[in-house]
Amino acid sequence: MNNIFKITIIVLVAIIGISLFYIFDNNSQNLDVGLVAPKEIMAGVPFDFKVEFSNQMSSVLKDVILIVTIPDGAAFVGSNTEKLVDSKDIGDLGQGSLVSEKYNLVFLRGINETQKIKVLVSYSLGSSKYEKESEQDIKILNSGADIQIKAPEKVFSGEEFEVGVDYKNVSDVDFYGLEFSVEYPANFTFLSSDSKPDSGNNVWELGDLRKGSEGKFTIKGSVIGPDNSTVTFKPKFKISLGDKDYFVELNDVNLVISPSPLSLGVILNDKSDYIAVPGDSLKYVISYINNSDVPLRDAVVRAQLQGELFDLGSLDTRAVFRKSDNTLIWNSSNSPELNYIAPRSAGFVYFNIKTSNNYPVRRLGDKDFILNVKVEIESPTVPQSLNASKTYNILKIETKVAGSISLSSAAYFRDADSGILNNGSMPPKVGQATNFTVHWDLRSFATDFSGIEIRAKLKDGVKFTGIAKSDFGNAPTFDEKTNEMVWNLDKLPANKGFVDDPAGAVFQIEATPSSSQIANYMPLIGEATVKATDAFTNNSIELKVDQITTALPNDITIGQQGGVVQP
């Protein structure tokens, strides 16, 4: 009988669940939501987006809310671009009632991409709440104000070139208050434009642009940069819609700097990826090659030193040193070979310098130091193929400076500050156990470190009492397999222990001297090994710290011979 009752209950629950699913699904299906919008639009051209839905159910829908979400890069015309969600409280919707809401939208970026507009309608029916979602894909074509930026694919460093700007209204609407601007790369020098900029050197007011109207102008300038590097121009235009100004982003224009007729190379200590340390000796070799078919005369090489860790007093070079901007200058006066660089020939200059012995750390955030050397070479001789006032090249070499990590290791018998009570006799006696606390203080300089591991083996007659703690990260643990104390830390921030307290750990050991150690200091823990990874240079670092004995030089309560083992 009980089994029949249980089966009946299970069947009823299943029937109710299926019925509720059907009711919920049916209620959702009986709310028709229609979206009306063009499948394709032009960037910068406003368009209407309509949402329509009707109540096809036999009951009144309560608390109806309509939410329209547009993607980043779109805007509700008349609103700020930060507004990406519009919510409307429709109220109650009677049987057969129709709601129609229209939105005026504009896309400001995403040319040649497909974007989604999402719609959600929520409502209450009885004591239950329901939602109906819908979405519309819209393909963004080219800009309605078709602005073409025409630039050469490649130019030489320092060469003058023109950027053409052709614009035309290819849409079915008129644009008002049109303004074109371009963000130049940092190494671009503006020379002129046949249409005078209205603001600075990169903003042009094009005014009202009627359907089919067009115009053009050119920008002249030059870029300076390393061979084969890419520079990017970022154009956009501003339109006025609904008393609001909107910026429409256009596709970036990229330009590659061709290898110069006068090439440059820099190498440090015979390596292309050298990592320096404080107190290091550095030798920079600057090489150059005349790749042209004409001799280059009166060449000048400049090397500007940038970085606080350069020890300028140790500079060794035949170049002239300009103190105002820390620049070395080689010319035909101090390097006669620069007077005439034959076609297809090469040469080099060099200088020696040291890094400072100490990191220039003054605050916690002073880290990740870099030595920069910006090298330039130029000659007034210009090959016929080059449209420039001089033959020029530039190169920058960045050298990372490794950080450092240090560990101080000390033991104490009387150590009230640690909060750990050490028992036993002092001086230590044969066969009697004495407790000591071992302190590890870890410091870092100039860079963050990761994967830190410290290991030290317990000596014969010494064991871990199980008491350990740390004021930074995990406490040390005992590795029974290797008989070592181990302290692992995931990370150690730069300058820990320099501008604040070091990362500290303390653990207690118990030492029982043997008769063979009478009249000597008893070894407590062996040499500590520290392994870590410099997070800035990715270099692995390993250092060792001397072993600890019962001499206890850091415990001021122990005399000079106070740690000698007694019978």
Summary of the model, kept short:
By secondary structure, the protein is mainly β. It is built from one helix and 41 strands. It has four domains: 14-142, Immunoglobulins (Immunoglobulin-like, Sandwich); 144-258, Immunoglobulin-like, CATH 2.60.40; 262-400, Immunoglobulins (Immunoglobulin-like, Sandwich), CATH 2.60.40; 404-549, Immunoglobulin-like (Sandwich).
How do the helices and strands line up, and which of them pair or pack?
Elements: H1 2-29, E1 31-36, E2 40-43, E3 47-55, E4 61-69, E5 74-76, E6 85-93, E7 98-107, E8 114-125, E9 128-143, E10 145-150, E11 154-156, E12 160-169, E13 175-183, E14 188-193, E15 203-209, E16 214-223, E17 230-241, E18 244-249, E19 253-258, E20 262-268, E21 281-290, E22 296-297, E23 300-306, E24 310-316, E25 320-322, E26 327-330, E27 340-341, E28 346-355, E29 370-379, E30 391-400, E31 404-412, E32 434-445, E33 449-457, E34 462-470, E35 477-479, E36 484-492, E37 503-511, E38 523-525, E39 528-534, E40 540-545, E41 548-549
Parallel strand pairs: 2-9, 11-19
Antiparallel strand pairs: 1-3, 3-7, 4-6, 4-8, 5-7, 8-9, 10-12, 12-16, 13-15, 13-17, 14-16, 17-18, 17-19, 20-21, 21-28, 22-27, 23-26, 23-29, 24-28, 25-26, 29-30, 31-32, 32-37, 33-36, 33-39, 34-37, 35-36, 38-41, 39-40
